[in-house]
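Page 47, continued from p. 46.
Same chain as before, 190 aa.
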Amino acid sequence: MRLICGVDEAGRGPLAGPVYAAAVILDPASRISGLADSKALSASRRLELAEQIRRHALDWAIAWASVAEIDAINILQASLLAMRRAVEQLRIAPSEVLVDGNQCPAIAYPAKAIVRGDSKIAAISAASILAKTARDAEMLRLHQLYPGYGLDRHKGYPTVAHLAALEQHGASDIHRRSYAPIRRILQGGT
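Result:
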């Protein structure tokens, strides 16, 4: 049987928190209805689908790259690193890896990048959902540790409220220092 692994990431754009990636090998005999790009789904629907994916997929894995890694190697390389880690955690070897975007991580399997793959390929949609729900859960956990930033609402994205909180409280340990808005705050600018 030809096993296709879908891979996607979540969290490239935020100013805070790690970037997450997931790898999913769906079971052709157990179709999951409603898979779509995670950004096109409500938070509650993503959680429902994530549970179905974890229960019915042949294999899945979630990995991340830390804020320190993002700052050290840049967000693109950190995203590719998280993707590679997710694929390497799989217990089943895929026949091919399909990655959302225009670049593939360095992995030991044949791989192909597909622009907007999260809206075209079910396995990539599933990976998108797992990565997004895992990252959202981490941002809720980080909100408990850093309550002044509103991470529970914007998940670290550069919203007006987040930027205002950064002006008020400064950058925390979970903020990406390599990102321009954070650099400006750390340098005392606005």
